[in-house]
Write a sequence for this structure.
């Protein structure tokens, strides 16, 4: 099938988020200017550079995570393992601003080392990030869309050493949860290796 996006898909649900999947989940924790803490999952999330290490997430509208981060310029990104799926999903609740999703989801907020935002103590890894950009993407006519894209530089990294095998991050131990389309999620149960080719022509 083919459809012009603006004409609609004719399917029971929009297939696009199900096609651009699996998406990693950035579990974003932040602190407001007056010290309230916040936690929410974002699957419009990725790492976009290694030197420096930059990560981004995109919020469809100015949600609490964005407004807290605008106030302090810092946030932590936590990664979700399968055993934390239910808590991660609970933390997506539309709680009133200032109500901690850490408490609502039964999670422990641990201090970060370099920033004021908290991190999820139970997460297998967390990044301490300083905001580098808050951007307002535009459509093809140059009109701003509702998404707000936050980019941050990773300045500190927490890893639970239980996920390491011979010093390498072992995804079969970490069991990261990713977002698929609809109400679906996936976790990693097997991996395979490939080596990049070298041009010899
Ligand atoms: C797995 C998952 C992924 C999500 N990804 C996004 C996302 O990429 N962008 C977004 O705006 N909302 C996303 N949401 C919804 C937010 O988590 C939800 O609106 C939340 O209440 C926002 O919290 P905040 O206002 O505390 O930032 C996602 C929810 C779930 C469960």
């Amino acid at each position: 099938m083919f459809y012009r996006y603006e004409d609609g898909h004719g399917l029971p649900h929009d297939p696009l988020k199900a096609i651009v999947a699996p998406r990693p989940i950035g579990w974003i924790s932040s602190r407001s200017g007056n010290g309230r803490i916040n936690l929410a999952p974002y699957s419009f999330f990725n790492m976009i550079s290694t030197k420096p290490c930059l990560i981004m997430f995109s919020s469809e509208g100015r949600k609490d995570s964005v407004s807290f981060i605008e106030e302090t310029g810092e946030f932590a990104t936590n990664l979700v393992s399968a055993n934390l799926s239910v808590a991660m999903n609970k933390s997506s609740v539309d709680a009133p601003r200032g109500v901690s999703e850490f408490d609502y989801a039964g999670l422990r907020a641990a201090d970060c080392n370099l920033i004021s935002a908290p991190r999820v103590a139970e997460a297998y890894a967390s990044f301490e990030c300083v905001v580098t950009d808050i951007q307002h993407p535009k459509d093809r006519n140059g009109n701003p869309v509702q998404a707000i894209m936050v980019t941050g530089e990773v300045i500190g990294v927490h890893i639970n050493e239980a996920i390491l095998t011979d010093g390498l991050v072992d995804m079969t131990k970490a069991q990261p949860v990713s977002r698929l389309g609809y109400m679906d999620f996936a976790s990693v149960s097997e991996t395979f290796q490939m080596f990049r080719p070298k041009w010899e022509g």
Summary: The chain has a mean pLDDT of 97. The chain has one domain: 22-187. The helical segments are 16-19, 64-72, 85-90, 101-105, 171-174.
